[in-house]
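ENTRY TYPE: paired fold submission
RECORD: A
CONTENT: sequence, then structure tokens
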Amino acid sequence: MVKENPVNGLKQLAKKLTASSQNLLAAFLDDDFKAKQKHQEILKQIELAYQQQSFVVLQLTNGIEPNPTFETTYGYIKPHPNNPDLIILNEEQDGGIRMIQTKSIVKISFLNKKKSNLSEDQVVEEPAIRKIK
């Protein structure tokens, strides 16, 4: 058994500490890190909404202008087959189809479709509420 030299252990610890502090500082100074993180979260929500075939409400921005304008649109989405940075929106307003860049999405909200296991013949009775004196 070879015993590890304590000096080597301290050097390794110092290297790891230096690397982690540099990464932390770079992430703190890098504004794009938060934007990338938010974009990844929006992409996850888009994928979830598509898998559940949910009705989606999107808040969009026009982008880089000093005073950006916002737009709200809604419908059903699916990913673009050739470009992962685009989604296809089937709009409920006018029945049109629209391609939207995922970077222009500020906020996404969606409603899940609830699948009922009950047939139309079955009726669900709510339990009676009893008052306690």
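RECORD: B
CONTENT: sequence, then structure tokens
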Amino acid sequence: MLNAPGKRERTRPRRDNSWSNDTELRRQTVAHFGTACAYYGLDVPQIIEAAHLVADSQGGAASVDSMRPMCPSHHRAYDAGLLVWDAAGGRFEPAPGAAQVAPLRAGSSAVQ
């Protein structure tokens, strides 16, 4: 995450239980995709995280193409299996049979 000048960079556990402090990859992800959450569109640059589409422990690449910007809530929902990545559609969707993650993105297949 980007912090105010003089603030210490924070780290947090990733899905594979390792600790990430790769601020350069986050910066590249935001530069490439923008600062809006890839699921809902919330655009608050100070909280946007870079989410791995495939965890490092599962062979995911540490490259911009394998990352998407997400707000912390939807990033956690994705890591918990409540959201899935639809590669063909290029977007996150609610996982079939999983609890609904609010707010639902307009145009989502779960929105009636």
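NOTES ON RECORD B: The chain has a mean pLDDT of 79. The radius of gyration is 14 Å.
STATUS: closed
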